[in-house]
Amino acid sequence: MEPDSRLVLLGYVAGAHGVRGALRVKLHNAESSTLAPGVALSFRPRGAEDDDAIARHEVTRVAPKPGSEMVRLWLAGVNAREAADALRGFEVLIERDALPELDADEFYLDDLVDLPVLRRRDPEAQGFDALGTIVGISSNGEQDLLVIRLRGREWLLPAIGVFITAIEADRVIVDVHDDMLPEDKP
Fold first, then answer.
1. Strand locations in 125-182, DSSP E?
2. Mind listing the pLDDT tens digit for each residue in 117-168?
3. Which residues form the RimM N-terminal domain (predicted)?
């Protein structure tokens, strides 16, 4: 199997911490153990898709930020507050194959992108209604959100068990009310 070099979004740089180049980083998974000294990370301006805009740095130190869900991160080559401030707002990414292996019943949200979203028509009926395709992952600060495109419009679905009833290799099955779906265009 070939290595997977896709970049996976871990979080974003909230700002500098101190005067020696440390970063304050908000992770999508605050409990992640992915960040450790020696790990190579990529940094890209939010919304940029151009790989030429990516800066790469190796982690030299990681520490929790007391009283916060953020972490403090030190990088090779980022040794001053000005250099850390230059990364403010950047996305923090890692190569997919550098992520830890998962148990059979676990998944990375990034792996759901491009999967169709379906809802069972009726508990007694056969078949599903197509509710769109997952086109991205977002966050509202409290929870991760699946960005789903349906008939040219996007809608957001909290990535929580009350809505997601099954994740299969080729689809995501959800239980949502009609009022959560985008309205048809007039």
1. 128-139, 144-150, 153-158, 164-168, 171-174
2. 999 877 676 789 999 999 988 877 678 889 999 988 999 999 998 999 999 9
3. 10-97
| 171 burial via Cβ count (<10 Å: 0-12, 13-18, 19+) | middle
Tokens standing for 46? 């939010």
Q: How far apart, in Å, do the first and last CA atoms of the chain sit?
A: 48
pTM of the model: 0.70
Q: How far is the C-alpha of 115 from the C-alpha of 173, rounded, in Å?
A: 10
- pLDDT tens digit string along 86-120? 999 999 999 988 888 888 777 888 889 999 999 98
Q: How far apart are CA 148 and CA 113, in angstroms?
A: 9
CATH topology of domain 7-98: Elongation Factor Tu (Ef-tu); domain 3 (2.40.30)
Tokens of 152: 């040219």
CATH H-level, domain 109-180: superfamily: PRC-barrel domain (2.30.30.240)
Number of Cβ atoms within 10 Å of the Cβ of 112? 19
